[in-house]
Every structure is written in C-alpha cells, then in structure tokens.
Design goal:
about 180 residues; mainly alpha; 6 helices; about 0% strand; globular
C-alpha cells in the first residue's frame, strides 16, 4: 500500500475520512518517523501512568480535530507526520507536571513549556526545520499545542476536580464531615 492513500489531503473532506487520523501516522521517511516518535516518547515517560494513558487516548479524539484545522487554515498538498500530536503530548505532559507536588516535576514541566514555546517561535519566524528534511507546518504545531491544552483540561484537570469517586461515602466513619 502506498502512503499517499493515508496522508492528510483535502480528500478527507470528500469521503476519505480515515485520512483525518492516518495523516498523523504516515511519514515521509524513517528519520521523520523517528524524530516524531522521540518527541512523543520523551514527555510521556515523565508523567504518571494514569495521566499518560489519558493523554494518549485523548490524541485519538484530537487528531481529526487538528486535521480539520489544517485543512481549513493551511495550504498544502498533503500532510504526513505526528509532529502536531507530539506537540500536543508535549504540552499536556508539561501542564500535568506543573501540577505535581515536587519542585523537580514542576521545573521539568516549566522547561517543557519553554521548549515548546521556543519551537513555535523558531518556526513562526521562518527558521525552518531542526532535525529532519521535512519542512514544518507551523499551523500544525500551533494546533497541536492548543490540542495539548485541551487534552490537559479535558482528561486531566476536570476528572480530578469533580470526580464522584473523591466524595467520601456518607457512612464512612473515617471521612471528614462538614457542618454548615
């Protein structure tokens, strides 16, 4: 099978909807794949298992949304690569680390955010690519960064602040009670 069948192209809005997901899975060459894989692996291993699973699952939902943003706002023949998803994972992981108790985790989260902002600024200034011969699509990386914030809010922050499991059972004698 040819990678062209799976690349994100305008055909995704004309019935070939699988391209909204698969465009993030196919790459131009092995080096392109490897840099995207490393960019996803580095931040994801820094966070806890539950957050890791939630962020990665959210990428399944966010991938087509990123694709639709690209189709609406960028001019390209085809998009291949996971760099938008990598930036989403990077930002969501960084924000997760910023919420942790340890200063080390918070510093790591701040460093990841600084690197993500630096990458976006570098590309927006037209400086090109760093590790591959594939020219970056700055809108993809910006959409990915925004998707990372959405993933953090949607699957990390909201479930932990209003979880019904965090409410003590009314008959639990060890639970603290509030008097009004």
């Amino acid at each position: 099978m040819s990678a062209e069948l799976f690349a994100l192209t305008p055909a995704a809005t004309h019935g070939e909807v699988w391209r909204l997901w698969t465009g993030h899975l196919v790459h131009y060459d092995f080096r392109h794949f490897l840099t995207n894989a490393i960019a996803i692996a580095v931040p994801i291993v820094l966070i806890d298992h539950r957050s890791r699973r939630s962020i990665l699952l959210s990428m399944t939902l966010l991938a087509p949304m990123i694709s639709l943003v690209l189709l609406a706002g960028a001019h390209f023949d085809e998009y291949r690569g996971a760099s938008a998803l990598a930036l989403a994972v990077w930002v969501a992981s960084a924000l997760t680390l910023l919420r942790e108790q340890s200063a080390s985790d918070r510093h790591t989260g701040a460093a990841l955010i600084a690197l993500a902002i630096g990458k976006l600024a570098f590309e927006t200034a037209g400086a090109g690519h760093l590790w591959t011969e594939v020219a970056p699509l700055p809108l993809a990386h910006l959409a990915g960064a925004i998707a990372g914030v959405v993933a953090f809010i949607g699957v990390i922050l909201i479930p932990t602040t209003h979880s019904p499991l965090s409410t003590p059972h009314p008959l639990d004698p060890t639970a603290r009670t509030h008097q009004y």
